[in-house]
Amino acid sequence: MNMTALTNQVMSSIEIAELTGKRHDNVMADIRRMLAEIQSPEKSGDYQDGRGRTQPCLLLDKEETICLVSGYSAALRIRIIRRWQELEQQAHQPAMMIPQTLPEALRLAAELAEQNMELERKVALDAPAVAFAKQIASVEKGITLSAFAKTVGLGPTKLFSMLRDRKILMSCRGERWNLPMQEFVDRGYFATRESTFDSNGEKRISFTPLITGKGQQWLVERFIREGVLRGVAA
């Protein structure tokens, strides 16, 4: 099931739980209370847990999601808002073919790397010289895991769960949740984007995991070897 279909975009309760660090059952309870108050019907969905079992979840549109998190802290609200911005940006991107063979996967990784290079060239042409160094540094760090998940047809929630199960991303709750293990950062597969925001007059820091071009190729090849993506030897 595609939680982020281009038509009728929704966010699942499991994704909200992962973004906010809250227990999924508590998020489900919050959603049901809110829907009852605003007299809106439940939209049911499902997802696969870490053991591959199908579990129930609830789906919210953007208006319902913003209503839900209005009672959460500013630090949690900003995570949800940024995720919705990602979903809306993805809705305007053309769909990509899911790689079925190892050669196709390698071509996909090469195309992603080429897109990064093209973006670098555009920055070089359009950006003022003073700002160029900073902008090119952010390009080289890679793309978000949510964007990468869409290119390989796994979905962000499933990809994050798989990477935590494989000890590639951290599974500890809190600020380090879903950040890459240092081992894979050192290999050049992942990076972390740091940003600041104000919370009740206090400066706070948030972190976003990024996957590099090198990491995209490595992960696609690994998933094909493991049978997550179908493939044949070249």
Characterise this structure.
- This protein is α+β, with helices and mostly antiparallel strands and about 230 residues long.
- It has two domains: about 10-90, no CATH class; about 100-225, no CATH class.
- The protein is built from ten helices and six strands.
- It has helices at about 15-20, 25-40, 60-70, 75-90, 100-125, 130-140, 145-150, 155-165, 180-185, 215-225; strands spanning about 10, 45-50, 55-60, 145, 190-200, 200-210.
- The longest helix has 25 residues, at about 100-125.
- The radius of gyration is 19 Å and the shape is globular.
Provide the descriptors you would attach to this structure in a database record:
three-stranded antiparallel beta sheet, 234 residues, DNA binding, globular, Ant_C, Phage_regulatory_Rha, alpha+beta
Q: What's the β-strand tally?
A: 6
**CA gyration radius, whole angstroms:** 19 Å
Number of structural units classed as domains: 2
Low-confidence parts: 1-7, 129-139
Number of helices: 10
Global mean pLDDT = 77
**Biggest pleated sheet:** 3 strands, antiparallel
In which range does the helix fraction lie? 40-55%
Q: Tell me, briefly, the overall form.
A: globular
- What is the topology, as strand order, of the major beta sheet? 1-3-2
For the record, give the distance between the C-alpha atoms at the N and C termini, rounded to a whole number: 30 Å
In N-to-C order, the SSE pattern is EHHEEHHHHEHHHEEH
Structural class by SSE content: alpha+beta
The proportion of strand residues reads: 15-25%
